[in-house]
Each structure stands twice: as C-alpha cells, then as structure tokens.
Amino acid sequence: MSRANTKLPFRIALLLAAILGTTQAQAADSHSRDQADIARSVDASIEQLAMEISPAERNAIVSAIESAREISRVAHQHNSPKYGEHYRRDAHAKATGCLRAEFEVNGDIPEQFQHSVFATPGHSYQAWIRFSNGDMLVQPDGKGDARGMAVKLLGAEGAVIAPELGGDVSPDAVNQDFIMTNTPAFFNRNIFDYAENMQHLAKLDRKGWFINLWPPRLHLKEMFRAYQTVSSTIETPLAEQYFSMLPYRLGDTTVKFSSRPCPAADYTTSVDKTADDFLTRQMADTLQAGSACFEFMLQPRPADASEKEMPLDDATVIWDEDAAPFVPVARIHIPPQTFTGEAQQEFCENLSMNPWRGVGQWEPVGSLNRARRLVYHAVSEFRHHQNSAPVREPANWCVPGADEPCTPQQGLNIHKPTWPLPRCFDGFFRPLDGSAASSQCTGDYGEILAERDAGY
Ligand code: HEM
Fold first, then answer.
1. Which residues are the signal sequence here (predicted)?
2. Is residue 185 packed enough to be buried (19+ CB in 10 Å), middle (13-18) or exposed (0-12)?
3. CB atoms inside a 10 Å sphere around CB 110
4. Is 68 in the pocket of ligand 1 (CB under 6 A)?
5. How far apart are CA 446 and CA 425, in angstroms?
6. Which residues of the chain have pLDDT under 70?
7. What is the pLDDT of residue 414?
8. What distance in Å separates the CA atoms of residue 52 and residue 378, rounded to the nearest whole number?
9. 375 lines ligand 1 (CB under 6 A)
C-alpha cells in the first residue's frame, strides 16, 4: 500500500467522526431547542390558564412532556412500519376497539352528585369508548399489560372547564371524558415521582426508577403497584372493572370513579386466544349480535377522611371501600355493532381524551391530574401534527369516511322492522266480504320478511 493509501482509512475515520460529531451536535441542538419550546409553551399555558403551580411542579410537568415526546419517538421506531406509519399515543398506544355506547344517568342518582353531566336524573348521552392496552409499544393482546377504558360523553351541557382543549367541529360538540384503567391504584404517588420515572422509561429502562444498585434506590410499594399494573392478562375488555385511580371534585364532593360490568354479564366466546388481536376479535364476536353493559359508579370521600387513609395526592393508595363504598350513578349500554372497519380505526386513533374535558362543577384533583391537563394536550397535539390529522371532537356516533351513510343506525347491528309493516297475505287468505286480497307482497310471507331483514 502506498503512503497515501495507508492514510486513507484514517482520513475516512476522521471524516466519519466529523460527520457523526456534527450529527450528534445537531441532534443535541435540536433537542435543546425542543426543550426550550416545551418549557415556553408550558409557561404560557400556566399563565393563560391561571393555574396555581409551584416552580418545582412546573419543572416536573416540563420534564414529563419532554419524556412523553421522547417515548413517542422511541415507540414509533418500534411500532412503525409494522403496525402502521402513524405516531401513536405515548401511553395506551394500542386500541383494542372504539365502540358506540349510551351513558344513562340513573333516575335515582343521589342529590349530592347531581352536577356536571350528572345534573339531570335519567338523562342519556351518546358516547364513544376507547378500550386500549397500556404500553407505549404495540404488543400481542395476550401479554400482561394495563387495560384502559376511556369514555367520551357527547353533547354535555354546562360551562366548559378547560376551553383550551377545543377541537370542536360544531358548537354542540361539548364533551366530557372519563379515563380509567383496570387497576385501582397508580405506580407513582405524584407528578414528581412520575416525571423521574418517565425519564427512565424514555430510555426503555422500565425498572430503573423502582430499583437500582447505584445510586441506591428501592421504591417497594410503587414496584408492587407497577407489577400489578403490567401483569394483568384478561379475557375480554368488556368483563373488567376500571378505575379513575385519581380523585375529582363533583359539586361539593370529592370522588373517585369506576365502571364495573353489569351483574350477570357473561361474554364468553370461542375466539382463538393466541391471536395478537384476540381482544378485538373477542369484542367483535360478542357485539356481532349481543350487547354489553357497565355500571358507572362514584366513590365519595367522607368529609372527615384523613389525608393518610384517603389522600388527595398519593395515587398509590386505594381508598377503603368499606369506609367509602362505590355508589352506582349511571349505566353504560354498548349495543350490538361492527367496529373494526378501517375508517373507524383511524377515527379511534385520532380521538383525544383528556381528564379535563368536562363541564360544570367537575374538577380533576391533585398534582398528577394538574399535569395531565397539559401533558395529554401536548401529546395529542404532537401526534396529530406528526400525522397531519385534524384535531376534532366527535358530536355523534358517525364515523367520517365510513362506507355506510351517516344515519343513527351507522355501525349498529340492530335489525328493526320498517314501519308500517307491508300488507302481506298468504295464498289462502280471503277477506270476509269476498273481495280480492290486495297483498303488497308476492310469494311466501316468511321469505319476504327474511329478504327484507337481510337488507338492513
Ligand atoms: C393515574 C391515573 C391515570 C389513568 C387512569 C390513565 C389512563 C390513561 C388511558 C386510559 C389513556 C388512553 C386514552 C385514550 O384512549 O385516548 C391514557 C393516555 C395517556 N396518559 Fe394516562 N392515565 C393516568 C395517569 C397519567 C399521568 C399522570 C400522565 C402524565 C402526567 C399520563 C399520560 C398519558 C398520556 C400522555 C396519554 C396519551 C394521550 C393522548 O395522546 O391522547 N397518564 N391514560
């Protein structure tokens, strides 16, 4: 090799190092620009929304949003293109189905709860429910994971509590969201723990915050809660009980909420449980001709409850149900329906849930909930922006771009006869006066009805 040639690998190495160095410097540069943007927009929101937040809490929120964005990027590399090119939620990334539902306030709802969407006993709302798996990665449904149930009530009435969430397509589209998972307690006490934990998660380090040799760290109770959360394997999302985990203020009462399958509900089906999407298939099978139902319940915190027994800002503590029993206040009916079409799945991905979307005397409580007002909004805007998708609030049960026309029956598997029924007589019928029977149908009556029903 000539002298010039011996230097070549060295020069290439230098060049590569320079390029890599520049790329790293550029990446670091754009990262710090992102950080500055996030911090600026958090400060603007805190000021605009007149939120009472300490500087430490503000820093934790900024950090949580930075981590959420990083998680979204890291997860995108894992999820895409195998599960689609689009950016997903950084939590609860995989939907197992978005279903049409009705949310009917009980006629006998106690007076202390008659506020916000519960103001009118017997009132019924159309709703959308997004069932999900909790992980940031899209995983087979059989893998242990938290399971989410996010309910969006359509056409709520009253003063909007977080107008910045917007996204309305029509002035009628004022909605209220109830966001729950199938464990009663969270794996972080408050926003400070959460923000630190997320920094680990953004590096796909799932254990680092809970247990670590150096620096030494052991968060035993939280580790147990995290284990409970991620180890849940289920048969169908329709048979789980879901919890808000965090408290809310309704009128003068502080409550947690939960939805539980109606008594005697049985959704056993024979779907192959090894399929990656068996939970979706299971629900599709159940709802092909059957329906499902949940009781929606509130757990009022007694006025004399201690901060230790029923804390307002420690989400790892389960409020004792003997001291504060859950009270059923509404019913969620899920009618027979088909929900697996492509347009509906896209609609489902583009929905935005936020614990602060609500009306009237309703207020999420505690530092985690305060952070969620900004974090959910920021994450939703980020993924909609990345996907060039419009941020829209649904006003009804119609799915934009679906094959079926937008009628109240869209997507439902409900076969109701048209009215008036056709006048059909079989060949033996003779009116008493001997006149001719003017049947509106030809052929066999049973066949005609079957044919007509198949048309729905
Ligand atoms: C402790 C109570 C919590 C519950 C019950 C809960 C439950 C859920 C559920 C069910 C979803 C999916 C929503 C959907 O289907 O669109 C979700 C999404 C999300 N959660 Fe939570 N979560 C909790 C706490 C938190 C906290 C404390 C944060 C951060 C401060 C957080 C950050 C997020 C984010 C960023 C999303 C994605 C939002 C979007 O892109 O639209 N969660 N959560």
1. 1-27
2. buried
3. 14
4. yes
5. 10
6. 1-31, 167-173, 415-420, 442-456
7. 81
8. 19
9. yes
Domain of residue 156: give its range: 49-386
From 58, 69, 181, 376, the mutation candidate for ligand 1 (largest count of ligand atoms within 8 A of CB) is 376
The pLDDT score that the predictor gives to residue 269 is 78
Same domain, 157 and 102: yes
Whether 102 and 167 share a structural domain: yes
Q: Would 296 be classed as within a structural domain?
A: yes
Q: Which residue owns the Cα nearest ligand 1 atom 35?
A: 376
Tell me the pTM. Answer: 0.85
Q: What is the predicted pLDDT for the residue at 419?
A: 66
pLDDT at residue 424, as a whole number: 77
Counting the structural domains of the chain, the total is 2
CB of 315 closer than 6 A to ligand 1?
Answer: yes
C-beta of 179 in contact with ligand 1 (< 6 A): yes
Do 243 and 184 contact (CB within 8 A), yes or no?
yes
Quick one: CA dihedral 122, 127, 133, 137, positive or negative?
negative
Of the residues 353, 367, 391, which should be mutated to test ligand 1's pocket, given the most ligand atoms within 8 Å of the CB?
Answer: 353
- Asked whether residue 280 is domain-assigned, the answer is yes
Do 196 and 332 fall into the same domain?
yes
Mutate to test the pocket of ligand 1, among 354, 375, 377, 392 (most ligand atoms within 8 A of CB): 375
